Amino acid sequence: MSRQARSPSHHVDTGTPILAVSGLSKRYGEREALRAVSFQAYAGEQVAVIGPNGAGKTTLLSIIAGIQQPSAGTVDRAPGEVGWVPQEPAVYSKLTVAENLELFARLEKIAAPRRIVERMLELTGLGERSDELLANLSGGSRQRVNIAVGLLCEPGVLLLDEPSSSLDPRQRERLWEFIDGLAERGTGVVFSTHNVAEAERHADRVLVLADGELLFSGSAESLAAEASKNAPAENFEEAFVTFLRESGH
Amino acid sequence: MLRKDLVILRRSRLLVGVLVLYPVLIALLIGFAISRAPAKPKVAIVNLSPPGQAIEIGNNRLGISHYTSSLTSGITPVALSSRAAAVQAVSSGRVLAAVVLPADITQKLSSVLTQAHIEILYNGNALEQSFVQSTINSALAQANLTLSQEIKQLAAEDIDLILKGGNFDVLGSSHEILGLKNITSVLHEVLRVQPPGPVRSKLERVSSFAEFAAQNLDLSKEVLATVSQPIQIKDRLLHGDRTPLDSYAVVVAVSISLMFICVLLAAGGLALEREEHTLARLTRGPPALVSRSVVLAEKTLLAGGCSFLVAFGMLAGISAFVHLDWGRAQFWLLSLAAASLAFGALGIALGALAREVRAASLLAFLLALPLAFLALVPAGSVAGGLYEVIRVVSFVFPFKAALEALDAAVNRASPGVGVSVAHLAGLTAGYVLLARGALSRST
User: Residue B276: which of A62, A79, A91 has the nearest Cβ?
Assistant: First the structure.
């Protein structure tokens, strides 16, 4: 089994958590989408939420982001401390890159909106395309603007829902370089993904959700080790599938 | 948010083009239609009566042209010489219909005892047939009325002659008639000098009859007028002022344009936020970047403001064709503002129900068009139960209330501006609550 680890200089501050989720449950009528999920995230940490379809990954992230209300449980995070990057770019296609950033910066009530826009353009590498309409950009560039909007308020934690699902491999690589860079600068990153290889490669910790239940919280290595107790797995994806099967999912 | 939406609107050229051109076209069409007299259909007239013949009533002659000129008042006449030519003209579509006056028409009209018949030739589909029948029937009714009035006039002159006396011509020679009233005075003079006896007694009886006949014949002119037009209309409007048809058409055109622009813009604007996935980003929290109420208010105001400006521009433009009382402009503004808000609220409710712009636009069209049509159905034109249903539907949809508010503002129609504006305010509140609920539920 081979893993491509993140930069060795990467540091996770495990002091005070910047996000604490406790006993989070969500019901839609008779169906339980989340069952008492608890975890914490720290500055500079990348947490991957993985699981099969319908596991409750998007529900968990959208409750942390404040889009949905939980049926039970709490989310502790400072107001404005959570940046949100939905799966589909949530930006205006008839506005330019700069106009989108400036609009959301003003809505975030940032003191110097133009300055932060310049910074985000530089960070996302979209400076030369700042006057282009979003409608004319590629999926990858749109996703970069989408992430930049999530970062405008310089949040302690950035939530990303399937950030690379609509991107080609090259765009995906650039995106992860960008996200890794954020984490290295101290931003906590919680992302959901179907691509377990991405979780293995970029996450400091993985949370395995299935049927709304948190089955595992730990490093990718420990998940692989857990799944390989009885029979060694060829790779992390196989280990993950074995783990789910052994957990009854 | 408002600035952002204005920028998006400015960049949506096709949408803005449709939103501006549509009401302008409506306004121009209304103005053009109202400022022009209605087109008169071409109808062939074939007069087969011999030249020089006239309708003879008593001692008077009435040319057949009196009749044909009345007949052609509502049409564009095309004179043809034969029935065959008329058949050919109708078959080829050169004329809509043909009226054939038979050779014996003057004789039959002169006889008074026999009804005259004319022949109408027409062609075409059911709609054209219906149009021809109503046009020709209307023209015939007018011609018959004119003819009966002419006959009444001639009869009245003859009665006058019998009553008051005078000269009349028979076969070129003039004769003097004494007249019933003169007979009475002559008889009274004779009776004054006539000694009592059988002759005086007979003369007194003749005098009494002459007096009786003179008094009753005097009444016969009024009887003739009543018989020629037995029912006269005296109409009275219970509430408000009488609304001219042209200014009511203006009100309908402006209301329809206002409704479409406002509902489409509000529904599309809110649906766009969902289609672009920005609504969740804007309203997540606490603290939310923008609350749902502010988003709804902004969409309502944007749609309402744009449609208000276009509708007011339409009214101002149409006033070049139709007289509108600018002294009531403050009522126009009030009713347009209330209607814009109500339509905007309906639009955001539709936008909250739909998840994308196309679905919202389709929903807005499918709902607005038939409901506006229902609001224009007049009372008594459909079965009672069905009309009650229409009334209820029209009450909960802002079009009828908007139409009534604008009609009251422009034409002083009933109910007044205040009642309709209050109705619109209630509908606005209701639709805003509906939109709020739909938005909370869907997110």
Answer: A91
Compute the distance between CA of residue B160 and CA of residue B220 in angstroms, rounded to an integer: 10
Nearest CA-CA partner of A208 in A48, A45, A50: A50
Across B33-47, B294-308, B383-397, least confident range: B33-47
- Contact across the interface for B277 and A86, Cβ inside 8 Å: yes
Distance (Å, whole) CA B405 – CA B398: 10
| pLDDT level of residue B32 (50, 70, 90 thresholds) | low
* Weakest-pLDDT range from A117-121, B115-119, B260-264, B401-405: B115-119
Within 8 A of A66 by CB-CB distance, chain B residues are 284-286, 288
Question: Which candidate in B5, B289, B442 is best for mutational testing of the A interface (most A CBs within 10 A)?
Answer: B289
Structure token digits, residue B196? 């009592």
CB atoms < 10 A from the CB of B275, how many? 19
Tell me which residue has tokens 């929903």.
Answer: B363
- Residue B322: CA atoms inside 13 Å, Cβ hemisphere, count? 27
A20 CB burial (10 A radius; 0-12, 13-18, 19+): middle
Name residue B242's amino acid: R
Judge: A107–B284 Cβ closer than 8 Å, yes or no.
no
Contact B322/A at CB under 8 A: no
Out of A110-114, B43-47, B174-178, B430-434, which region has the weakest mean confidence (pLDDT)? B174-178
- As given in the structure block, the two tokens for residue A72 are 């039970």
A15 pLDDT higher than 50: yes
Handedness of CA A29, A32, A37, A42 (dihedral sign): negative
Q: What is the pLDDT of residue A4?
A: 46
What is the rounded average pLDDT for all residues in chain A? 87
Alpha carbons A52 and A198: distance in angstroms, whole number: 15
Tell me the C-alpha distance between B263 and B22, whole Å.
14
Smallest CA–CA distance, residue A27 to chain B, in Å, is: 14
C-alpha dist (Å) from residue A194 to A59, A241, B65: 15, 12, 93
Is the ipTM above a cut-off of 0.85?
no
Q: Which residue of A has its CA nearest to B11?
A: A94
Cβ pair B71, B120 in contact under 8 A? no
Residues 6+ apart with CB under 8 A from B323: B247
B273 to chain A: nearest residue by CA? A92
Instruction: Kindly state the percentage of chain A with pLDDT values over 70.
Output: 93
Distance to chain A for B277, nearest Cα, Å: 5
Helix H or strand E segment including B55 = strand B54-57
Structure tokens at A163: 């950030």
φ and ψ at residue A62, rounded to 5 degrees: -70, -30
Top pLDDT among B115 and B211 is at: B211
| Cα torsion through B330, B334, B337, B342, rounded to 10 | -160
Non-local (6+) Cβ contacts of A235 within 8 A are A1, A2, A197
Q: Is the pTM of this model over 0.80?
A: no
- The reply to whether A94 touches chain B by the CB within 8 Å rule is yes
pLDDT in tens, B316-360: 888 887 888 889 999 999 999 999 999 999 999 999 998 888 899
Q: What are phi and psi of B408, to 5 degrees?
A: -65, -40
Give me the mean pLDDT over the A113-130 stretch.
Answer: 88
